[in-house]
Amino acid sequence: MKNDICNACGSSKLMHDMKIVDFGHGNVKNDLSVIVQTTDRAFLNKFEKGKLRAQICGSCGKVDLTVVNPQELWEAYLKNKSI
Ligand SMILES: [Zn+2]
User: CB-based contacts of 17: which residues, under 8 Å, 6+ apart?
Assistant: First the structure.
């Protein structure tokens, strides 16, 4: 959910949909993600990934994280709990 003002300091200097990346081998940028394992096998495990997006306040630096696909993650989470 997008807010127009920072809920920490009240500033309106918010940056939306900022990508958070991890630098891998050769400085390859990988979107930082949350993962939910959806199988319990030792091999061929499947994961549901949720890329993170951040809303960052340009005044106080507060960062709010959101996943882009909460519904898929929730379903994977429920499935994982029943394994
Ligand atoms: Zn702020």
Answer: 53, 55
Q: Say how many Å lie between the CA of residue 70 and the centre of ligand 1.
A: 25
Tell me, in angstroms, the distance from the centre of ligand 1 to residue 34's CA.
25
- Domain ranges across the chain: 14-82
Residue 32: which of 24, 40, 41 has the closest Cα?
Answer: 24
55 C-alpha vs ligand 1 centroid, how far in Å?
A: 10
pLDDT tens track for 13-23: 999 999 999 99
